């Protein structure tokens, strides 16, 4: 017997190193409510990035690492999840606008509306990008819905202002549309521009609108060209 054989039999040779198996960390199983919220969050990002027409159930499912039937189970399809996303954004912005409109003075009211909209755009760009796009038939809310609600608030205040100044009160709804439309259109522009700051944008909006209001003619006419 060779020395090598002897040492092997006596167990003096160092044992081979045992490499432990990598443990697979089990994926945490979501509750139905958690899965729904995850899908809404992911869909919101996809809709903001690609728009309604460019978004597919396949992509939402892939980003959530689930099968397509899971999306259908929760929302019935792309239209269903889109409606939920839009409804949440509409309610968020509408709440912000309603909370901001506290002053009864038209100049301050316009400033509050402008700043509230720009605050929302700054903090929720994806959401604003979604709600200003054309919505499919049957969607639960649009940007027009929000603007319409603000117009109603402004209209009530302008009616009183018009009466106090001797202007025709029936024209107040039209002026309300003009003022709020100015704010809404500027907000859509600022979504991409982001310059100057929201405070500067709001100040210039109020400057233009209010100086126009303060110099209103009772019977304005167009200049002949």
TrEMBL record:
Q: Organism's domain of life?
A: Bacteria
Q: Which UniProt keywords apply?
A: DNA-binding, Transcription, Transcription regulation
Region named Disordered = 1-32
| Low complexity bias (residue ranges) | 1-19
For this UniProt entry, the molecular function terms from Gene Ontology, in alphabetical order, are:
DNA-binding transcription factor activity; transcription cis-regulatory region binding
The HTH tetR-type domain is annotated at 33-93
Task: Name the InterPro entries for this protein.
Answer: DesT_TetR_C, DNA-bd_HTH_TetR-type_CS, Homeodomain-like_sf, HTH-type_TetR-like_transc_reg, HTH_TetR, Tet_transcr_reg_TetR-rel_C_sf
Give me the positions annotated for DNA binding: 56-75
Any single GO BP term: negative regulation of DNA-templated transcription
**Protein name per its UniProtKB record:** TetR/AcrR family transcriptional regulator
Q: Which organism is it from?
A: Solicola gregarius
């Amino acid at each position: 017997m060779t020395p090598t054989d002897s040492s092997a039999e006596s167990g003096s040779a160092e044992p081979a190193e045992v490499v432990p198996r990598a443990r697979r960390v089990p994926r945490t199983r979501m509750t139905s409510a958690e899965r729904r919220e995850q899908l809404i969050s992911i869909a919101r990002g996809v809709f903001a990035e690609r728009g309604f027409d460019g978004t597919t159930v396949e992509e939402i499912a892939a980003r959530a690492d689930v099968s397509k039937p899971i999306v259908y189970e929760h929302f019935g399809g792309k239209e269903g999840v889109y409606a939920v996303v839009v409804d949440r954004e509409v309610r968020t912005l509408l709440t912000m606008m309603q909370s901001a409109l506290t002053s009864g003075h038209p100049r301050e009211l316009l400033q509050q509306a402008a700043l509230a909209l720009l605050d929302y755009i700054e903090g929720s760009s994806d959401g604003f990008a979604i709600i200003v796009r054309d919505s499919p038939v049957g969607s639960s809310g649009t940007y027009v819905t929000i603007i319409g609600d603000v117009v109603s608030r402004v209209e009530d205040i302008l009616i009183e202002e018009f009466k106090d100044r001797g202007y025709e009160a029936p024209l107040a709804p039209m002026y309300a549309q003009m003022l709020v439309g100015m704010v809404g259109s500027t907000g859509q522009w600022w979504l991409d521009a982001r310059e100057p700051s929201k405070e500067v944008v709001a100040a210039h909006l109020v400057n233009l609108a209010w100086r126009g209001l303060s110099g209103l003619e009772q019977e304005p006419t167009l200049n002949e060209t």
